[in-house]
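Hi Y.,

Following your request, here is the sequence exactly as I used it, all 218 residues.
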Amino acid sequence: MASEKLTRQAVVDRAMKIADTDGLQAVTIRRLAAELGVAPTALYWHVKNKDELLSALADHLLAPLVAGLAPDRPWAERLRAVVTALVQQTRAHPYLSALLPVIDKSAAEGYLRATDTVIGLLAEAGFTPRQADQVASYLLLGATATVSCQPGGVDGDEEASAELRRQQRLDLERLPPGRYPHLAAFAATLSDPPDLDAYYSFGIDLLLSAVAAMAPKV
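Below is the corresponding structure, written out as tokens. Let me know if you'd prefer a different format.
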């Protein structure tokens, strides 16, 4: 790619591709430049440094969270759409949970827009600004943790997932069933692969039911 045709979006898209393939730690200015076929200095026309690059990557990944929200829908439906989009983006790009803590959030437009939108929705539900900020933080942590704790891991390796379940089942079956009857019952469920759609649907329901139960205006 010639430097005169290079765009900021092209830089971010390639950074995302590298992170999706090899992890966030693989995203460097030098590797980006090599893959784009330009000198590293050419990238600085579009991102000042790696910190700005990571913020731009976060903006790109978070943009779908608030895109197309219907303003006439109830706050709970809009909040569900945001949380569902966050889970979907984290499933597609598992490094997102590691990316958010390292960016300058005050300069990340996508993060600010998503957070402001969620706090506004929670304000509609009757939460104070401080409470809304806390709830937004819990939802972010809960959604990303749901992905990182996905049964069998998040790398999509079915063979490795099956082996992990087998080892977990064997470990639990070695426990005295009279002392740990519920763990013994759970071990029996590990013979079959988990229903991930049901897992994520239940997780989102669990998070949002707690918000609805505590919302002052519900």
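Residues 129-148 form the longest helix (20 residues).

Thanks again,
Q.
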